[in-house]
Amino acid sequence: MPLLLSIDTSTRGCSVALHQDGQLLSNYDLLAEKSSSGMLTTLIYNAVEHAGFQLVDVDAFAVAKGPGSYTGLRIAVSTAKGLCFALDKPLISVNTLEAMTLQLKSFFPANYLFCPMLDARRMEVYCAVLDAELHFVEATQAKIMDEQSFTELLTERSVVFFGDGAEKCQRILGQNPNAHFPTAAIFPSAKTVGELAWKRFQKQQFEEVAAFEPFYLKDFMATTPKPKSY
To answer: Where is the Gcp-like domain (predicted)?
Structure first.
């Protein structure tokens, strides 16, 4: 009965999950800022140990490949690759937005579309549009929100906008009757990364560990640190 350990640090938080034969055994989610850098390895250890296993028992490691925070994605992918190399295990990657959609899709009619959004500074978001079968209707992209955003799609279909970038969209499209905005906050989670990774594991859809890189979507832009006041 294969064990899969999944990691998601696409945004400010940190999430780890352990699945066996596609069934969730343990799951830890931290939403604290920058928790991935300090807590990821601890959560990995806890998720495995509290389920009664050791890291050597894990059959494959899965990671949310992005889009998302440059630093968060780099931490998750480097950790997953390190575990794969050390334990000689395969690596599975999952699109962060696809995994987010899996959290929500069963709560809406089957003909709805889903647009997960992650904040990407100012009026920009990382987003995609998926249907209830998790097929991509619009590919993952970095999109600047304005009055014309999604207007053509919304004339034909009902669309659910969610994630920490959806607030920008709601200010612009909130009056459109086909635009829906759940009140519950939806954050990336390793739980649904693991559910999708199990399907890929069954099909032996593995990444080339040495060559694999996160799906950054756009180049890293460093910020100028503020001067210190003494």
So the answer is: 32-223
pLDDT for 227? 53
Condensed to tens digits (0 to 9), the pLDDT of residues 20-63 reads: 999 999 999 998 876 667 889 999 999 999 999 999 999 999 99
Judged by DSSP in three states, 68 sits in: coil
Q: What is the DSSP string of 11-44?
A: SSSEEEEEEETTEEEEEEEE-STTHHHHHHHHHH
Region for residue 121 given its phi and psi (left: phi exceeds 0; alpha: psi -120 to 50; beta: otherwise): left
Q: Where are the beta strands (DSSP E) in the chain?
A: 3-8, 14-20, 23-30, 60-66, 91-95, 113-119, 124-130, 136-144, 159-162, 179-180
Task: Return the number of other C-beta atoms located less than 10 Å from residue 151's C-beta.
Answer: 11
The tally of CA atoms less than 13 A away on the side-chain side of residue 30 is 19
What pLDDT sits at residue 210?
A: 97
Longest dimension (CA), the chain: 59
Domains of the chain plus CATH, in order, are 3-95+188-202 (3.30.420.40), 97-180 (3.30.420.40)
97/30 Cα distance (integer angstroms): 18
Please choose, from the candidates 163, 123, 119, 157, the residue with its C-alpha nearest in 3D space to the C-alpha of residue 138.
Answer: 157
* Model pTM score: 0.92
Tokens coding 180: 């829906």
Give residue-wise pLDDT tens across range 133-170. 999 999 999 999 999 999 999 999 999 999 999 998 99
Tell me which amino acid residue 96 is: T
